[in-house]
Amino acid sequence: MSLIASTSSMAPWLSPHPKLEGISLMGHLYNRLDGMYPNRWRAAFADGQDAIDAWTESWAEAFADEGLVPQDIATGLRNCRRMFDWPPSLAEFVRACRPHLAPENAFQEAVRGMLDRSRGEKGQWSHPAIFWAAVRVGQHDIMHLGYAVMKTRWEAALRDILHQGQWKDIPEVSMALPAPGNTQADRDAAAKQMRELGAGAALDQTGRDPRRWIAKVQQRCADGRKPSPTVLAMLQRATGGAA
Questions:
Q1: What's the CA gap between 233 and 237, in Å, rounded?
Q2: 37 CB contacts (<8 Å, ≥6 apart)?
Q3: Is the whole-model pTM more than 0.70?
């Protein structure tokens, strides 16, 4: 992130906020943490305003880099009350803001979401980055390999997607239509036609031409009675492509 981009993305955190009587979001966060951890929080700023300014800039830069929004900070403050007896470090606070984005938690959500999508459902996604990280890694691997195997790949993909800072909407599921001849109905219809043509008997009896069904199919084609795609494909294979 360039200095210009960093300064621009940090502005919402550092600028006076009208709903906070002119206090910035970072100033409000400082006050909330000071109230949650009396004496302990303020003790970390023994150098006075210089220390507070350094904290403000480094945390605001991290929030911008992680793509956090004020709702995330509110979540982080709620989680801090149950997670930390002492004031959190920056890394701890960011994790508290997005517990669902902890790599293993996010992976399990991706498994559930991709399983839903394989059934034609959109899936439940707490953050679009989890979906797009799953897409990058691959639906098959997400669904069939465990976290221990996928840990390194998954964490790298999730980290890269999160650092983008903005994400496309999660698309609805687009179910692919089965290829002709691949459905059970197609296979049943093909089997019925083959029985009518005597192909099954030809395979089981001796002394008869096992390929006599080919002539019957070809005659039907000549009469304008087109066979099913599955039977037609079998005919093309049997005749080297000449239907």
A1: 6
A2: 86, 87
A3: no
